[in-house]
Design goal:
The complex is a heterodimer. By secondary structure, chain A is mainly beta. Chain A is 6% helix and 40% strand. Chain B is 80% helix and 0% strand. Classes of the chains: A mainly beta, B mainly alpha. The structure holds copper (II) ion. The site of copper (II) ion (CU) has 5 residues of chain A, from loops. Chain B: Keywords: Membrane, Transmembrane, Transmembrane helix.
Chain lengths: 462, 142
């Protein structure tokens, strides 16, 4: 072959290899500032194809909580020192308590967090503008600025709050706290156990190792990125609530661990009377004097068949829309970066579905995980009920959840009622997975965006 | 181009050495951290895990891709073939790494395939050296 021919063949071969790679790279680039609601493609779930124009209708920013004199008013001042984040100088931040029906007002002040902060009320189905997602429901609160959140403590339960700006970094390094809504007239005392791993050390309420147990009602909050297994020594116990929703007629548990997924909460009631200990792994525990630690039970409680079945309040068998949220993983470019990224229904972010609903819809969703790793899936603004796992129907108490542990290979059927208009994130609560593409949104017809990701506030929800 | 080919295949070999050292260090580091009361959970990654991830998922695939592209111009007998095989083995290596998350047993194949990558890269390096030793033969691109 002549030299010139040979060179031409080499160039063609090189282009054949590099050309497609370059095209995929270019195609993946995302502009610095964008409207989250305009990303991806609308998915109507087989229901009526409603208007997908995000420029008309009611604005997200107008979907605010009520005005009036707050019953509970708290100021939270966010700070950053080194890599640690604090609220009012501490991590976890202050425990906020309210009685069901009270109006809560939280003033967030950013004293020294360079990237800006927000507060998301994890598990509380607040009005959309109070949801605290930077670039979707508000602008990030810059240094020296403040933002007021107002919402009614509608449902009693165990919740938590955390930043939703650069959240994979800010939550890991301390920007969170507990939010407890107690039923009216409740007299029972309880003890909150915020479980968090700081720099590789697992803690309960910021304390590594063992702390004193002070109540037989323990509210466990997993603020970490991965699921934890907790277990009780010295007594039998019950799980009285999951993700802020009571379990209907919970049974006695013995020799079983309880899985609390990332972002999830579980309320325990210890039967006593002996000295008890609650272990959360990594040597961290709440314990009474004289309690003897048992080994981690091999068996784990299955919420699917726990408690007695009860009334759902809607009929999930006649849904208006059926969505699929299929999590995978593949090689590709995400905003120009090559790597193995999470996919939703086979697509990489931002080419992901926008689940479109109308107020009042009954919605069913099939969540499948074929990605190789567990994903704690968290839908903002709604509680979903689990109907089945891998084809096995739920037979226990209605399992209402906002943070669902979807293990590799698992398929869940879930349902919910679309009763909270807005634009809501539906993402993995292993927050490191969000910048890797594991976030979609649920959007209501007739709601238009008010904020943009990026922009002058540097909104970075993930 | 021949020296670039040789250098790239040599760098892949060095990458292989870094990888086996890093992954061993990573897990000894985990044992040490857990001994100190640390927890090993979903997102635990120490410095050596990060080295293994960056070198394995980014550096070596880029080197293998560059080797393949350079092979088209290097005019080394069998050069394209060995570069393509090396590249294929590297792709398989990344696939096996992530398949191992679902099926941990696949991790054993990841370990074994690492030897295949190293073997192919060293053959590629030898081909470049042999081509250098001989006067440039009139070979076609193949
Ligand atoms: Cu995830």
């Amino acid at each position: 072959m002549r030299t010139s021919t040979r060179a031409a063949v080499a160039v063609v071969a090189a282009l054949a290899v590099l050309g497609p790679i370059g095209w995929f790279w270019f195609d993946s680039l995302v502009t610095g500032t964008y409207d989250m609601a305009a990303m991806g493609y609308p998915d109507y779930g087989g229901g009526p194809a409603t208007d997908h124009d995000h420029r008309t209708g009611i604005a997200v920013a107008d979907l605010k909580g009520p005005s009036g004199t707050p019953d509970v008013a708290v100021t939270l001042t966010a700070g950053k020192a080194g890599s640690r984040y604090t609220l009012n100088g501490a991590s976890p931040g202050p425990e906020i308590r309210a009685v069901q029906g009270q109006l809560i007002q939280v003033t967030l002040v950013n004293e020294s967090v360079p990237d800006g902060v927000t507060l998301h009320w994890h598990g509380v189905d607040v009005p959309n503008a109070e949801d605290g997602v930077a670039g979707v429901t508000q602008d990030a609160v810059g240094r020296g600025q403040s933002h007021v959140y107002r919402f009614v403590a509608k449902d009693a339960g165990t919740y938590w709050y955390h930043s939703h700006q650069v959240s994979h970094e800010q939550v890991k390094n301390g920007l969170f706290g507990a939010l407890i809504i107690t039923p009216r007239g409740a007299t029972r005392s309880d003890q909150v156990a915020m479980v968090h791993t700081y720099q590789g050390k697992r803690t309960v309420n910021g304390v590594p190792g063992i702390s004193d147990i002070s109540s037989s009602a323990i509210k466990v909050v997993n603020t970490d990125a991965g699921p934890i297994r907790i277990w009780v020594s010295g007594t039998t116990f019950r799980v009285t609530a999951i993700d802020g929703r009571d379990v209907h007629e919970p049974g006695v548990i013995k020799d079983q661990a309880v899985l609390v997924t990332a972002g999830g909460r579980v309320d325990l009631r210890l039967d006593g009377p002996g000295p008890a200990r609650v272990d959360v792994g990594g040597g961290a525990a709440l314990t009474a004097a004289g309690a003897v630690q048992a080994a981690l039970p091999r068996d784990t409680l299955d919420f699917l068949s726990y408690g007695k079945s009860g009334f759902l309040g809607f009929d999930p068998d006649r849904p208006r829309r059926r969505f699929s949220y299929d999590i995978g993983r593949r090689f590709g470019f995400l905003d120009g970066r090559p790597g193995l990224w999470w996919t939703i229904n086979g697509h990489l972010f931002p080419d992901v579905p926008m689940f479109m609903v109308t107020t009042g819809d009954v919605v069913r969703m099939t969540v499948h995980n074929g990605s190789g790793e567990v994903h704690p899936m968290h839908l903002h603004g709604h509680h979903v009920v689990v109907l089945s796992r891998n084809g096995t129907a739920a037979t226990g108490s209605p399992w209402w959840t906002d943070s669902l542990d979807v293990a590799d290979g698992d398929t869940y059927e879930i349902a919910f009622r679309a009763d909270n208009p807005g634009i809501w994130a539906d993402h993995c609560h292993n927050l490191d997975h969000v910048p890797e593409g594991l976030v979609a949104h649920l959007a209501y017809t007739g709601v238009r965006s008010s904020f943009q990701v990026g922009g002058p506030s540097g909104n970075t929800p993930e | 181009m021949r020296s670039v080919y040789r250098a790239l295949s040599g760098l892949i070999l060095i990458g292989f050495v870094v990888q086996i050292a890093a992954i061993a260090a990573a897990w000894f580091q985990v044992l040490n951290d857990v001994d100190d009361g640390g927890v090993f959970d979903n997102n635990t990654r120490n410095w050596a895990h990060i080295v293994h991830a960056v070198v394995g998922a980014e550096v070596i695939p880029l080197l293998a891709l560059a080797l393949l592209v350079v092979s088209f111009f290097a005019r080394i007998p069998g050069g394209v073939k060995w570069a393509a095989l090396t590249f294929g083995a590297v792709v398989l290596q990344v696939v096996l790494a992530f398949a191992g998350y679902s099926v941990p047993g696949v991790g054993a194949l990841h370990g074994l395939n690492a030897l295949v990558v190293a073997g192919l890269a060293s053959v590629a390096m030898r081909k470049a050296r042999e081509a250098d030793a001989k006067p440039a033969p009139p070979v076609a691109v193949a």
